[in-house]
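hey
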């Protein structure tokens, strides 16, 4: 029995409509490829190249969600979970590779390097499994396992080993504390300022990479100020919006 031409045409249109959504999944998955390249660079102690690959992964992570909503990926391709894919890629780029770099960098005391790296990956794995990692208004609950950023600061600032140990230990604990940390794109409050600060941070970070992770005191100070803003602004907003006496 011959096929109905209309059904064949509809099938081709349906298949074609899945191409762009699946390309979005491929783009997200390319973040895992960036993580692999970053790990190879880290194994060779090429820290600038490692952070460059992590930066590419960060850029992909910043745009793939918008593309996924634009092409209705979850609706058109329900077989593949974009959320699961995103978590897998984020864990490798935000946590696993940076934890290796922190352990192998020589920035920590030798006896503390591996235990702290283990604390990073274990605490972050638990954080990524938390169904309530974000509030209803899109703030992160606790320190959101941004260890790629923390590793970047450690390599740029090169603090005393004891200070590095204290910072990492505090952030591991803060992962499970009832803090509110800004998501630059999702949080509505002060969104323009948040995005502007993120853009400025990105420009300064690229400059730092171009200078071999030695951007000088002024750029380093600006990077620290922006980092403190992102970590602390959520607490300030929470205090401002909490009724007195509560």
């Amino acid at each position: 029995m011959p096929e109905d031409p209309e059904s064949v045409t509809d099938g081709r249109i349906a298949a074609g409509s899945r191409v762009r959504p699946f390309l979005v999944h491929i783009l997200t998955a390319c973040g895992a490829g960036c993580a692999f390249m970053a790990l190879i660079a880290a194994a060779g102690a090429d820290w600038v190249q490692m952070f460059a690959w992590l930066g590419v992964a960060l850029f992909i992570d910043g745009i793939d969600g918008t593309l996924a909503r634009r092409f209705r990926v979850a609706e058109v391709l329900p077989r593949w979970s974009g959320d699961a894919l995103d978590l897998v890629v984020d864990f490798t780029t935000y946590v696993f590779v940076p934890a290796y770099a922190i352990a192998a960098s020589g920035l920590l005391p030798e006896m503390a390097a591996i235990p702290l790296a283990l604390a990073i990956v274990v605490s972050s794995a638990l954080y990524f499994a938390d169904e309530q990692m974000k509030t209803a208004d899109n703030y992160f609950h606790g320190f959101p396992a941004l260890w790629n950023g923390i590793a970047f600061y450690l390599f740029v600032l090169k603090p005393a080993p004891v200070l590095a140990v204290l910072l990492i230990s505090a952030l591991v604990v803060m992962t499970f504390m009832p803090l509110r940390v800004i998501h630059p794109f999702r949080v509505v409050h002060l969104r323009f300022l948040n995005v502007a600060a993120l853009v400025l941070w990105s420009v300064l970070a690229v400059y730092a990479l171009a200078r071999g992770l030695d951007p000088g005191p002024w750029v380093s100070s600006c990077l620290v100020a922006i980092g403190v803003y992102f970590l602390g602004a959520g607490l300030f907003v929470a205090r401002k919006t909490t009724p007195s006496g509560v």
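The mean pLDDT is 88. Strands lie at 140-141, 180-181.
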